[in-house]
Amino acid sequence: MPNKAITVYIVDDENLARERLKRLIGQYPIYEVCGDAENGELALNEIPLLQPDIVLLDIRMPGIDGLEVAEKLTALTHPPAIIFCTAYDEYAIEAFKYNATGYLLKPARNEDLEQALSKAKQLNQLQIKQLRNESGDTPEQFVAHSWQGHEIIPFSSIYYFRSDHKYLTVVHSEGETLSDQTLKELELAHPAELLR
């Protein structure tokens, strides 16, 4: 069964810039553009409803600018990952105050966009900790440290863990996932869920 696509929302006041980003993202089947907006106000109305995973955000726009949009998005209960995509480099330091995962200069190069999207889909340490805290002492989710970043797998879908040299294979209902954790680490982290 294929994994659900990672949704991307584009905010840019230039129609050509939005269309170009849609074309570039369209090359990668794991990403799906779920919407776009030509200004900050429209974006702030749609993003909480659509709940995209990633927002590609221009900075200089008429009305509400990208930095203000980012500030409001980071206040959401489940904020999207933010990648700024702008023609100006002087906002870079300020942009990272809003937990931006990337900062691309226009026109974004294909490989830079792919790298920024890939980085944005990885969970950071704070998000992993929050997931573990939300699930209490007996976590219902297992976080695999795969080569693609962190992958969340519900414990209920895991059949077993197999150790092979330096890698761990998680065999679950959706297939297999490689992780760089060890069986010993798993035993210590999840004594209630796992039996060796």
Characterise this structure:
This protein has 196 residues and is of the alpha/beta class. It is built from seven helices and ten strands. Helix 1 (15-26) links the parallel strand 1 (6-11) and strand 2. The model has no long low-confidence stretch (mean pLDDT 80).
Give the topology.
Layout: E1 6-11, H1 15-26, E2 31-37, H2 40-50, E3 54-57, H3 66-74, E4 81-86, H4 92-95, E5 102-105, H5 110-120, H6 125-134, E6 141-146, E7 149-154, E8 158-164, E9 167-172, E10 175-179, H7 183-189
Parallel strand pairs: 1-2, 1-3, 3-4, 4-5
Antiparallel strand pairs: 6-7, 8-9, 9-10
Helix pairs in contact: 2-3
Summing up helix and strand content along with how strands pair, one would put the structural category as alpha/beta
What is the radius of gyration computed over CA atoms, rounded to a whole number of angstroms? 19 Å
Q: How would you describe the shape? A: elongated
- Largest beta-sheet characterization: 5 strands, parallel
